[in-house]
């Protein structure tokens, strides 16, 4: 492009120098002008034809249209040169057949401009054409009244000459206006090409206007300096074709600025005023009258287009206000309107009306694991599956998040049958990011039997849905009057402490999710002491939640909710982040302490999760060797091959791995030789029995020896008395922790924890 620009500039400079210098006299100038025009026109035609061949879609059509216009222009130049160079006429006749080719150019150029893919619809292209007519007509009226009319009336000898002479400035005005408006709305990638094209059209338009004036005054001859304007315009158009951009993909919406909207109307009041005055003073001023009539007609059509656009915009806005933008389903507002209308029409109570409230189980797990894009894809597919289970006359709505609703009016099937049909539609797994995911819905059914208003039936369906979510067996429940809101509050929490599982608390899950997002969870640290020195060598990170309504919750309660509902990944990242922040502060105070974090077993085999944890450490400049990941033997039993590979990956980044709870029912003794772990952490139940059970002491001694034999550090947790602490130290245990050593403390208190004295002889319980 740069080399072509230099060559074009050099050729234009030589051409301009020859014409301006007058070198060789009129005959030479005539030859230079004709041959130069053919050269520049042919170059522009060749470049636009090449652009058309290498483009596709709207851009190809645009370049083809411009090439057709330039072909007409070159044909006109050939005819003009034939008259002057072959027939040896002193000047080509005007008008002539050449003018047909010349006047074809602005028409084709207008078509090309409106075809370029800058987001124009058919209506916007028509509006653009009308804007060009408005500006061109207004400028023509002003120019005619200010002297152009007098020049034509005194100089033009025939009607044909008059018509052709007027066609040049009029077509150029329309073309220039169109080019400026297209440039104003062009996308950034297209502005360079369209800008060069517009500049070329300006040069051509100015030269055309000067040509018509000189012809009217009988002062034009080939080789006149205005021919430089034609050459410059053709050169700029050739460069525009060379500067073209790749085809745009998709639909780009063009938006007009305020200036572009007002621009066509700026000269209109002045033109109408001047035209009316001229019409009164000169009753037979036909050109002014015709131009004003065309302008007024364009204004009227333009206003009709505006009204039509406004109507379409209002319809679109109304549809958007009542539909979900992601799934295209009805939204809560439209559902409530239709439900209220249906209930109002059913005053006799003889119609069958039902509302189904649908919530996707474990949807948060999809978002946490695959990202929000996959979650959105799941919602779209879920909406389509629900839509396929009901009639076209039924209303399917997305209420927000992963919650949907269906309004059934006079359905031939019982609502409970439709609910089970929807549930069955989710048996087939969703394919997300190339992976199969089974996501099942919980469906609540409510009818008008227990509801007098739309709000009540929606609430009842919501309560039934929560009942279905608590009972994950059938996944469908019908509202009954004994379903009260209390089931979603304190009673739900009470069940957590009893036999009901944590998954039966959707409200607690939602509150935990909100607390996690707001950073309202707390973190405490239990110090770990080296044996036999008693120095603090690290801390175990423990998460706490003080519920705003229920008070401090036991970790086993809210951690079970997090595991069941897919929050463990986000919860662990929160804990690691808080621990990294606090470790950085301790380092600033001169203490380098290791941090141990418990990891939900399935997350250990997730390579993406390990990358996120390492990124957190890097962000706070914490060496990975300071972090110890604690997991249970459960992961070894269920995912041995995967566990070995991922554990090795963690250790390659210097992260320490600890097998927690060794000695409980999940212990994987046979797998220890195959695992690359750094610590073996003895379960608190085993430690608690040491001081009173000789057999337990033998097991602990063997476990310590086993850990050392395998090159592992042995850690004992749950140390509750001095006798056990001293005994573990004497047996060679490397690290101990427990309430006797130190209860969990806040981050600000960690550095104040005193070393543990393991040399003093403990007082026996019997003394």
From TrEMBL:
Transmembrane segments: 34-52, 64-83, 103-121, 128-146, 166-184, 196-216, 228-245, 252-277, 289-308
Source species of the chain: Mycolicibacterium tokaiense
Residue span(s) of domain GGDEF: 351-481
Ranges in a coiled coil: none
Protein name as annotated: Diguanylate cyclase domain-containing protein
Keywords: Membrane, Transmembrane, Transmembrane helix
Domain annotation EAL: ranges: 505-758
A Pfam family that the UniProt record links to this protein: GGDEF
Entry superkingdom: Bacteria
């Amino acid at each position: 492009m740069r080399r072509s620009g230099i060559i074009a500039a050099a050729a234009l400079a030589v051409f301009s120098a020859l014409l301006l210098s007058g070198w060789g006299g009129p005959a030479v100038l005539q030859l230079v002008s004709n041959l130069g025009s053919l050269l520049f026109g042919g170059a522009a035609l060749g470049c636009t034809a090449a652009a058309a061949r290498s483009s596709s879609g709207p851009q190809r059509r645009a370049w083809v249209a411009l090439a057709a216009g330039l072909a007409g222009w070159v044909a006109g130049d050939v005819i003009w040169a034939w008259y002057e160079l072959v027939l040896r006429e002193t000047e080509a006749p005007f008008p002539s057949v050449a003018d047909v080719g010349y006047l074809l150019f602005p028409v084709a150029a207008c078509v090309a401009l409106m075809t370029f893919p800058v987001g124009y619809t058919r209506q916007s292209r028509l509006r653009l054409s009308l804007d060009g007519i408005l500006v061109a007509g207004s400028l023509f009226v002003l120019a005619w009244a200010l002297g152009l009319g007098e020049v034509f009336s005194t100089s033009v000898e025939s009607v044909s000459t008059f018509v052709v002479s007027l066609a040049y400035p009029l077509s150029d005005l329309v073309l220039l206006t169109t080019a400026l408006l297209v440039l104003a709305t062009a996308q950034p990638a297209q502005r360079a090409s369209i800008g060069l094209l517009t500049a070329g059209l300006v040069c051509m338009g100015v030269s055309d206007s000067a040509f018509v004036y000189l012809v009217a005054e009988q002062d034009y001859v080939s080789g006149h300096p205005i021919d430089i304007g034609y050459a410059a315009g053709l050169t700029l158009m050739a460069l525009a074709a060379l500067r073209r951009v790749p085809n745009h993909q998709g639909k780009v919406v063009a938006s007009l600025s305020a200036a572009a909207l007002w621009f066509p109307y700026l000269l209109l009041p002045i033109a109408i005023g001047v035209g009316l005055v001229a019409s009164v003073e000169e009753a037979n001023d036909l050109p002014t009258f015709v131009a004003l009539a065309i302008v007024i007609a364009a204004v009227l059509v333009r206003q009709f287009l505006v009204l039509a656009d406004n109507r379409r915009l209002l319809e679109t806005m109304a549809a958007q206000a009542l539909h979900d933008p992601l799934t295209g389903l009805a939204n809560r507002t439209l559902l409530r309107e239709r439900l209220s209308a249906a209930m109002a029409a059913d005053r006799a109570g003889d119609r069958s009306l039902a509302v189904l409230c649908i919530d996707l189980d474990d949807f948060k797990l999809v978002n946490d694991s695959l990202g929000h894009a996959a979650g959105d894809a799941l919602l779209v597919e879920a909406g389509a599956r629900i839509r396929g289970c009901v009639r076209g006359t039924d209303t399917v709505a997305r209420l927000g998040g992963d919650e949907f609703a269906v309004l059934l009016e006079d359905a031939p099937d019982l609502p409970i049958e439709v609910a089970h049909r929807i549930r069955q539609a989710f048996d087939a797994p969703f394919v997300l990011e190339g992976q199969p995911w089974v996501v099942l819905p919980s469906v609540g059914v409510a009818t008008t039997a227990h509801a007098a208003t739309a709000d009540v039936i929606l609430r009842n369906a919501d309560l039934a849905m929560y009942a279905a979510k608590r009972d994950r067996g059938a996944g469908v429940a019908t509202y009954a009057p004994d379903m009260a809101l209390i089931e979603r509050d304190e009673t739900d929490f009470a069940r957590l402490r009893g036999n009901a599982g944590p998954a039966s608390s959707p409200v607690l899950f939602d509150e935990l999710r909100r607390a996690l997002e707001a950073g309202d969870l707390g973190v405490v640290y239990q110090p770990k002491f080296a044996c036999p020195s008693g120095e603090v060598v690290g801390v175990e990170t423990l998460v706490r939640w003080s519920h705003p309504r229920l008070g401090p919750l036991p970790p086993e309660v809210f951690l079970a909710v997090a595991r069941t509902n897919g929050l463990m990944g986000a919860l662990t990242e929160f804990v690691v982040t808080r621990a990294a922040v606090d470790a950085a502060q301790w380092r600033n105070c001169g203490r380098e302490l290791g941090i141990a974090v418990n990891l939900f077993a399935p997350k250990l085999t997730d390579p993406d999760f390990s990358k996120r944890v390492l990124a957190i450490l890097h962000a706070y400049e914490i060496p990975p060797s300071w972090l110890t990941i604690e997991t249970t033997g459960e992961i070894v039993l269920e995912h041995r091959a995967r566990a070995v590979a991922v554990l090795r990956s963690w250790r390659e980044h210097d992260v320490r791995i600890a097998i927690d709870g060794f000695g409980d029912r999940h212990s994987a003794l046979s797998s220890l030789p195959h695992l690359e772990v750094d610590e073996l952490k003895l379960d608190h139940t085993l430690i608690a029995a040491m001081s009173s059970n000789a057999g337990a002491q033998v097991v602990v001694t063997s476990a310590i020896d086993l850990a050392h034999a395998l090159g592992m550090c042995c850690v004992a947790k749950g140390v509750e008395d001095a006798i056990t602490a001293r005994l573990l130290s004497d047996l060679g245990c490397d690290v101990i922790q427990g309430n006797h050593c130190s209860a969990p403390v806040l981050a600000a208190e960690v550095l104040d924890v005193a070393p543990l004295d393991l040399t003093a002889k403990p007082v026996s319980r019997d003394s």
